[in-house]
Amino acid sequence: MTRQSDAAIRVLSVAEAGAFGERALRNIGFSADEARVIAAVLIDADLCGYPALGLPRILTIAEHARMKLPRKPVSVVHETPASALIDGGNYVGFYAVHRATEIAIDKARASRFALVGVHNSWLSGRNAYYLEMVARAGFAGMHFACSEPVVVPPGGRAPALGTNPIAFGLPGEPRPLIFDMSTSALNHGDLILASRLGQLLPAGVAVDAEGRPTRDPDAARAGGILSFGGHKGFGLGLTIQALGLLAGAALPRGQVRDFAFLFVVFDPALLVPPAQFKRQLAELIAQVKATPGQPGVEEIRIPSERAFMERERRRIEGIALERRVYDRIRVL
């Protein structure tokens, strides 16, 4: 199915994209199983319409300073029947956080509730992927992720927080309800991809090293990204950075502003019958979608609805990669 729609684009089938990504990941040092897990997360981001969090992230993984450091197996360092604190072994989060999601689901099946934290890991990608795993297993979940500073606080001119996304997943029919948002005005992956492609950033999302607004991605990398929604996004981002301390953010390197990931997963039946919840959730969504639209608005969309539709379309049409990104991954 590989075809070139124009000089700047390379289109791959899902199978081709998977093989392509796995080859590159194995060549930069991951095992076959690790590469399979990481590539699956990346390809799903591409399918759902988030290219900056998809296969181009292989380049970011390869370039990351922590790829040069030794890894050890992902391990549980503290555990109760309903909780686990996980040392990610310096594995990229695409792998370590995926394993943490599996552990959270297993514990929720056994105890109906799970609290799982991960540290000593980095770059987890699109958190909706992990919450969809949780929701499709029949559980409700929340996920908080923090990282090294790249986001400037209101009034500041140097980064103080990570992009610090928050995500939710709820089981539903015919598909779960997933909401995933960064607390920054721009994902760091979008900034990196814009820099690779020489594209301008949207207005009002970043500042340069002097704190001046900029659309230049390289100037923004020297400065920082702004918080989403001003002080409200900053407050959420700070709280998520603090929650990361519960997941052990400061344990690997003694830094309170570092990568960490926290899951809260529970069985809806602890509160209401699951069938009743799914029925009422479907009714809630239907009522919201029935809201009269403004002039020119054809449809009220629900979080994750567009991503699910994109996924089905791209499974048929394939995944488009910028040619210059494709060629750089191919070199790996």
Give the overall shape: globular
Largest pleated sheet: 7 strands, mixed
Mean pLDDT, to the nearest integer, reads 96
Tell me the number of helical segments per DSSP (H or I, 4 or more residues long): 11
Overview of the molecule:
β1 (3-6) and β2 form a beta hairpin. The chain has helices at 14-27, 32-47, 57-63, 93-111, 128-136, 188-197, 217-222, 231-246, 274-289, 305-317, 323-331; strands spanning 3-6, 9-12, 75-80, 83-92, 113-122, 140-146, 151-152, 166-170, 177-181, 206-207, 224-226, 260-266, 319-322. The longest helix has 19 residues, at 93-111. 41% of the residues lie in helices and 21% in strands. The protein is globular and about 50 Å long. It has a seven-stranded mixed beta sheet, sandwiched between helices. The chain has a three-stranded antiparallel beta sheet with strand order 1-2-13. A three-stranded mixed beta sheet has the order 7-11-10. The chain starts with a strand and ends with a helix. α1 packs across α2 (32-47). It has 332 residues and is α+β, with helices and mostly antiparallel strands.
